[in-house]
Each structure stands twice: as C-alpha cells, then as structure tokens.
Amino acid sequence: MINIENVTKFYDNGAKGADQISVKIEQGEFVFIVGSSGSGKSSFIRMLLKEQEPTSGKIYINNVDITTLHHKEVPYFRRQLGVVFQDFKLLPNKTVYENVAFAMEVTEAPSREIRRNVPAVLAMVGLQRKSKSYPNQLSGGEQQRTALARAIVNKPSLLIADEPTGNLDPKTAWEIMHLLEDINYRGTTVVVATHAKDIVDTMQKRVITIKNGKILSDVEKGGYSNEG
Amino acid sequence: MKVRNFKYYIREALKSIFKNRLMSLASIITVASCIFILVFSYCIVSNVGYLLDNVESSLDISVYIDNKITEKELKDLKQYITNLKDVESVSYISSEDALKIFSDSLGDMSSDFVAGLENKNILPASFTIKVNDIANQQSVIKQLEKLIGKGIVEVKYDEEVLDNLIVINNTVGIISVVIILFLAMLSTIIIVNTIKLTVNNRKNEINIMKYVGATDSFIRWPFIIEGVLIGIIGSLITVVISFFLYNKSIEFIYSNMAFIRNWLNFRNVKDVFKFIGPISILLGILIGIVGSITSIRKHLQV
Questions:
Q1: Same domain membership, residue B171 and residue B38
Q2: Of A32, A124, B17, B249, which is the most buried if we count CB atoms within 10 A?
Q3: Residues B193 and B290 occupy one common structural domain
Q4: Where does a domain end: B123, B142, B157?
Q5: Are the Cβ atoms of A51 and B208 closer than 8 angstroms?
C-alpha cells in the first residue's frame, strides 16, 4: 500500500523534516503517526499527499512512485486518496451536500452516480438531515463529519487524516475516531496523524512515533510513546 | 471540454458571481469604468478627427485659369493636374458656373447685381482641387504654382487655416496617444488591485479543489467563464449607458446651441458605436479572462 524508502527532507531554511525514514504500511491497516509539533509528523503527511517533495528517497503508494509524478498526473493520484484536516477545509459557500458532491464532480463522475453516492455517505456519517446546511451553520464535529464524507465518497483505498480531532472536544473527537475505525473496517487503509494521547492509548492500533524527523518507534497495538 | 463539464463550469461561474456578490459588483464596476474611459476618449478623439476631416475637405485649392487658353490646352492642363502626386480630384468650374455659384451665395439681393454681370462675365474659370491628405497640401500647392503663366493665373488657398489645421492635426494625434497610454496604465493598475483582492478570497477554494483531485483546467474553467461573464456585463453596461449619453448630449447641444450646427457637426451615434461597441465588449471579455487567469495561476503550482 504505502512503501517509504529512505526519505529525507530538508527545508530551504536548513530544517530537517525527515531523516532517512523507511516505513511500510499494508492494505487495510489503521496507523497512528504521533509526535510533538516540529517532530516531522506534518512533513510526513505532506509528502504522502504530494504537497511536498522529499529531498531524497522514494515514496510508493499503490506501487507507484509518487516522487516522480508529473504535475499533470497529481490530480489523478489525489483521487485515490481521501484527506481530512484539522481545520476541515470545507468550501464555505457550498452546502454539506454540495461539498461532498464536489469531490465527485471533480472526477467527472456521472450525475446519476453522484445522486446515489452522496446521500449514502452522508447517511453513513450521520448527516443526512444536515445536507442543505452551510458549513458555518454546523458544529465542529458536524463539519469534520462532512469532511470525512467528502474524503470517502470516491471510495479511496487510502484515507489520510491530519490531526482530525485537533479542533474538537473529547466526546466529538471519539465520534470521529469511531467513524475512522468504521471506514477502516470496510477495507480502507487509514493513516491518522494526531496528538490525542488518550485516544491512541485506548484504541490499541499500530503507532509510529516520529521525533526529529526520525522514526523513534513503530509498535503494533501500541500506545502514545512518552518520548514522542 | 465535455458538454457535461461545460454545464458544470457555467453553473459554478454563475453561483460564484451571485455568492460573492460584492466582489463581482466591484469587478463589474472596474471593468465598466475602464471601458467607459476608453469609450469616452474614443468619442472625443473620433469627433475631433471627424471635424478635421470636414474642414479639410472644404479646404480645396482653387486654381484660376487664363481665359485665353484653348479647349485642348484646358483639357491637357486638367489631365496634368489630375496626374500630380497626392491629388485626389480635380473639378472644372466654368466662368458661367462661377457666376451661378456667386449669385446663389448672394441670395435674394443678387438679381440686379448679377444681371449687370451676365453681359460681361468677369469671373474666371477655375479648377477646384482636392488633396488626399492635408499634410500633402503644401507640396501640391508648390507644384501648382510652377504652372503660373502656363495657362494658370493664380493659385488660391486659405493659408492660415491650413497652417492651423496641420498643427491641430498633429496635436490631436499626440494627445490621443498620450490619453490611450495613460488609460492602459490606469486600467492595469485598477485591475491588478482588484485581482489581488480576489486572490485571497480564492486561495482556500483552489487549495481544497486540488486536495480532492481537481485538474488544473477543471479549476480554471469556472474562473475563466466567471471573468468572461463579468467582462461582458461590465462592458455591455458601459456601451448601453454611453450610447444614450452620447445621443442625448448631441441632441442637447443641437437644440440648445443651434448656432453650433453651422460650423460643428458631431458624428452620428450609430457610426461611433458600430465601431467602439464591439471593441469594448471584446476588450471587456479580454480583461475578464486575463484577470481570472492571473489571479489563479499562482495557486495552481501546488
């Protein structure tokens, strides 16, 4: 699924985002990436999204080396991913329904398919009644569920969540985590970068801890490393 | 571009215009003002040009002919002048024609006076010569003056008017170039600033589109169509308003300052807008396209 080989990332200012990182993540896994801010966690996620290029090394996703993708191929690569952010990144002037439908319109999916799939994912995240609301009429949890619906509506094989619960209260954070778990049960590989120690400790999933751009630990069914 | 996509692009463009009402209005006003200034200065420049053309065409050179020359010599002379460089036309006015023109110009009080002249017509026959461009008038006059004594008695032209006209002609040329350069600069500054405002509004939108896997052209098209629509609306408003404004101003001037009509003619409103109308709309569309492409280009690089 994901195969990262010897990836190093230097920024222009000399900061090190990644230092000789090598990781393999298999299809269907649920993985937490943990680490304090400035640890290199964000660089890791950004390189997976091809928002940033590694200085050296290779990143294979679904057996394609994304570091060599041409600018024109990037959109097609991103369609295989679902992405969720801390700040939701919803389009403010589109309704919940339109925000989710938009991700399908971009792929030039037939209208019939859009009309069928969007209500289905909205039902799955529990937002069927809010489909006509605008983002500013929603709570944080509802906005993040909208973002989740948008991320999975194209049935991606990989879902990447960058601090998905960072702006949410603990109860809502758990709701989102359970949704992510749900999505993972249906076969999607899920990678979650997070700070939420109690959630990581409780869920007992694979935990990769990053510090100073290096992998500090990689534990099956682990908890939040104290050193991270 | 697929038809279904095209519908989507138009829908998105229209939605965006309505949802960002204030910004759209600002852009429409910007386009409209730029084009208004252009139309306004075109109206002035083209009317000054028109006025000059009118005066220019009344600025004929008169050549008085020796009354002793023969038919054949007259014919040769006309042929010779017609073949001179920069001469547009030569028309012959016999001394009888000259008398008639003279008596017409006198009106009612002419009869007695002209009756006396008819017996012994002292008015000479002449050629009226039109030159293709006012700038060449002097050189034609010089060539004609060489013919004095060879069948021609005198070359007459309005020296002072001619000199003034040449100066005005050149001044208008320079001023219109300056005005148009100034306008181009002004429009660019206004448009660049409006775009800067829109860019920040659009940054998030474009980023999100990229995250969900939109291709560059998919992102670009709705913005381009939005720009085109704003350009069309802005320029259309200007063209319609200035059409009526121009028409009303001329009507007003003619009806309130009737004396002006005798020496000043304005260009017909239809003639003016037949040219500047389509140009304005094309320019509006162009401004819209350039504006939207510049405002999103930077953000497509991610």
A1: yes
A2: A32
A3: yes
A4: B157
A5: no
Question: Side by side, which strands form the sheet with A56-61?
Answer: A16-25, A2-10, A56-61, A64-65
pLDDT digits (tens, 9 = 90+) for B115-157: 666 666 677 888 888 888 777 877 888 888 888 887 888 888 7
Give the range of the structural domain holding residue B150, as residue numbers without chain letter: 60-157
Could you give the ipTM of this predicted complex? 0.85
Angle separating helix axes A140-152 and A96-105, nearest 10 degrees? 20
Residues B190 and B297 in one domain: yes
Six token digits for residue A90? 């919803």
**B70: CATH:** 3.30.70.3040
At residue A112, the 3 state secondary structure works out as: helix
Contact A168, A148 (CB under 8 A): no
Last residue of a domain, one of B157, B186, B205: B157
Contact at CB, B214 and A75, closer than 8 angstroms? yes
* B243 and B98 within one domain: no
- Angle separating helix axes B3-19 and B216-256, nearest 10 degrees: 60
Q: Which residue of B has its CA nearest to A101?
A: B212
Is pTM beyond 0.80 here?
A: no
**Does B135 lie in the same domain as B18?**
no
**Chain A contact for B2 (CB, 8 A cutoff):** yes
Q: What domains are there in chain A, each with its CATH number?
A: 1-80+156-228 (3.40.50.300), 92-155 (no CATH)
- Give residue-wise pLDDT tens across range B45-102: 788 778 777 776 667 788 888 877 888 888 888 888 888 888 888 888 887 788 777 7
Q: What is the largest CA-CA distance in chain A?
A: 51
Question: Cβ neighbours of residue B196 under 8 Å, at least 6 residues apart?
Answer: none
Q: Do residues B293 and B220 touch, judged by C-beta distance below 8 A?
A: yes
State whether residue A107 sits within 8 Å of chain B by CB: yes
Q: Between A and B, how many residue pairs show a Cβ–Cβ distance under 8 A?
A: 51
> Which of A61, A70, A93 to probe the B interface (max B CBs under 10 A)?
A93
> Rounded to 10 degrees, what is the CA torsion of A148, A153, A157, A163?
-10
Q: Are residues B179 and B265 in the same domain?
A: yes
Clarify whether residues B173 and B118 are in a common domain.
no
Regarding whether B39 and B101 lie in a shared domain, the answer is no
Classified as helix, coil or strand, A199 is helix
Stretch (H or E) spanning A116:
helix A111-124
Residue A10, chain B, CB below 8 Å: the answer is no
